[in-house]
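Co-fold these.
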Amino acid sequence: MMKHPDETIDQGRRDWFGLAAAATAAVAAPGVILHLASANTAPEAQPASSAVRWGLLIDTNKCTSGCRDCVDACDRENGLDLQTKPPTEAPTAWADQKAVWVRKVKLADGLTGRVTNLPLMCQHCEHPPCVDVCPTGASFKRADGIVMVDRHICIGCRYCMMACPYQARSFIHQPMHDQLTRVPRGKGCVESCNLCVSRRDHGLPSTACADACTAAGKGAIVFGDLKDPASPISLALKAMPSRQLREDLALNTGVRYKGV
Amino acid sequence: MARALMSNPGRWAGVGLILLGLCWTLAAQVAWAGDAQHFVRPGSKAATLGGCVEATPFMRRNHMELIKHQRDITVHQGIRGARYSLAGCIDCHVSHTADGQAVAINSKQQFCYACHAFAAVKVDCFDCHAAVPRGGPLSAAASGQGATSERDPRGE
Ligand code: SF4
Ligand code: SF4
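Predicted complex below.
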């Protein structure tokens, strides 16, 4: 078959273009590399890395009945204090249905009568059942171990809420209005503790709940990197006995408890 | 044929109507295009800047692709404050009332609403995302300004 004359390649022209492109690249490249290098130093420009695994260690001996400082701090951090009861909803129903990312739980030993107080949030499981059951891939685990919901993909089926052994997830039933810029939230999606993900992305050292607990003088919550053997959380885990809640499920939770 | 047309006033009226219709459609388009110039609200940061993060014609057609791609990078990789962040769009394009309150960017005649109403495309972003800058990239507590709530009067 004969080639159409238009399709034959003009090698001279090609070479010239190649040369021109190379020259352009040579001129542009130093600028590009400089730009990338300067952008990369900011923590918010770094992707979440599997070199770390974020976790919490909660000392239940230091957690007291009636104190809600961690819960309130979480609410403020994530704009959950901006939720308002829909006029049609009964107060009791609202107390049940409004989103909570961390709850205060009281455990009572029926035999000895010993009462333990603890804050319960998403346990950031290494093998999260909520991720296993999600039909859309919305429930996912980040490289740094944070388990969260991509609300863009969540269809609100609430399978994950049923699968979570810790009742850590909430569903938003009503249209939302007063969200914070850093915590988009909306009707029809599931949400839960994300270990203050905007703080993580900006390279800050702690979570709202841990800060509040420290500020209250209790110091019951330690946040840190479970993969760094020298981090305060790893040292504390090594020094003192601790447990995972429902460790029989072998989820390898990122949140650990002392004194339970 | 031409003679037949000319001899038939009814046909002429028909052609005239069609022409009138076309002219009206064109005029409406031109008027809308003129409006589009003003979709950038006076008093917003965007009104003081020479250009958007990309060329305006490109942004008009492709902003949704940019922010859709960016959202995956932000949610899954935790990369924030990037060139195509939706929070950046809102920061720059939001306008303010006389007493300095931010006006929801998707409310009537505001930046998002105006074009989307013209294009008859529903904006879902603000079912979840704040339509005014609220709270900043870090909480007051995280940036060391104490434990205050970020409840503010709602910009509508
Ligand atoms: S605690 Fe529940 S929501 Fe959190 S990762 Fe485990 S299963 Fe998922
Ligand atoms: S509610 Fe959303 S995150 Fe949960 S399983 Fe369904 S789609 Fe996945």
